[in-house]
Amino acid sequence: MTFKVVIPARFASARLPGKPLLELAGRPMIQWVIQSARRSRADEVLVATDDARVFAAAFDPAQPEHNLGIITDAAHASGTDRIAEVARTLGWSAKTIVVNVQGDEPQLPSLLIDQVAGLLQAHPDADLATLATPITNVQELLDPNVVKVVTTDGGEALYFSRAPIPWHREHASAGWVSQSRCDGARRHLGIYAYRVDALQRLTELPPSTLEIAEKLEQLRALQQGLRIIVATASVVPGMGVDTEHDLAAVRRSLAAAAAAE
Asked: In this predicted structure, what is the pLDDT of residue 12?
C-alpha cells in the first residue's frame, strides 16, 4: 500500500492563534502531528501551511535537517483546499491516495492513518474514507461539537450531523433532554483519505446547502453524490486541541506519558 499524508496547518485560528506552534511537552504541536504521521506507512509526509513560522517548524524531531513544509495560498477556505493545491503542485496522479491528518491532533495514533488509507484502497468504488468511534453516553450524543455519522449496513456514509443521530424517539418522551439511549450512535473522527481525482472534484464544487447549514464540509461530498466509506477506528485516539481547555488536557496527558517512560 502506498499513500501520502498532508497535514494542513494554518497559523491563524479564532480560538487559539498560532495553534500549530503552541508548546506541548517542549515541542511545537505540529511536530507531534508530524511524528505520528512519520510513524505511519506513508511514503511521503508534508505540511501544507500559509505561514513562514509554521513552515520553519515543519520538521520531524527525529530528522530536523529535513523540512517537510510546503507554502500554500493564504486565501484557502479549508485544509482540504490546501491539500488539493499540494496535489496539483506536485503532480500527483488521479488515483493517488492522500490522507488528511489535521494539524491539531497531536495524539493521533499512526495506526489510524494506516487504517484509513487501507480502507480506501480496499474499496475502489469509494471516493473518500473516514473513521468513527462508538458513542458511549447520552451527553456526547447531545453535544453539537461532537459530529455524528450514520451509515448503511455496508459502511457507506448516509449522513453526518451535529444533531443527535440516530434518535431513539421512544426513549425521549419529554423531548431533547430526556433522551436516555445512545446505542448505535457513532462519533466521526476528522481524518480522511481521498483519491486525488475526488479531492480535486470536491474542492472545485461550491459549498452545499447542507454543508452551510451544519458547518460540515463532508456534506458537500455526500450532497454531490461522492461515496464515503466509514469504518470503526481500530483504537480510540487521544484528544485533539480546539480550545484552551483541550490544550491544558493534552499537555497533562503528554506530561504523564513522559513521566511513565
From this structure: 79
Number of helical H runs and strand E runs in the chain:
9, 11
* CB-based contact 112:189 (threshold 8 Å): yes
Residue 260 in domain? no
Q: How many domains does the chain have?
A: 1
Identify the domain containing residue 133 by its residue range.
Answer: 4-236
DSSP letter, residue 67: B
Strands 69-71, 148-151: pairing kind = unpaired
Residue 78 lies in a domain: yes
Q: Are 103 and 33 in contact (CB under 8 A)?
A: yes
Q: CA end-to-end span of the chain, whole Å?
A: 32
Question: What are the mean pLDDT values of the chain's consecutive 10-residue runs (261 residues total)?
Answer: 94 83 92 96 96 94 91 92 96 97 94 98 97 94 94 97 91 82 93 97 95 96 96 93 88 80 66
Scanning the structure block, which residue is given the C-alpha cell 513522559?
A: 258
Identify whether 254 is part of a domain.
Answer: no
> What is the DSSP code (8-state) at residue 64?
T
Could you tell me if residue 204 is inside a domain? yes
pTM of model > 0.90: yes
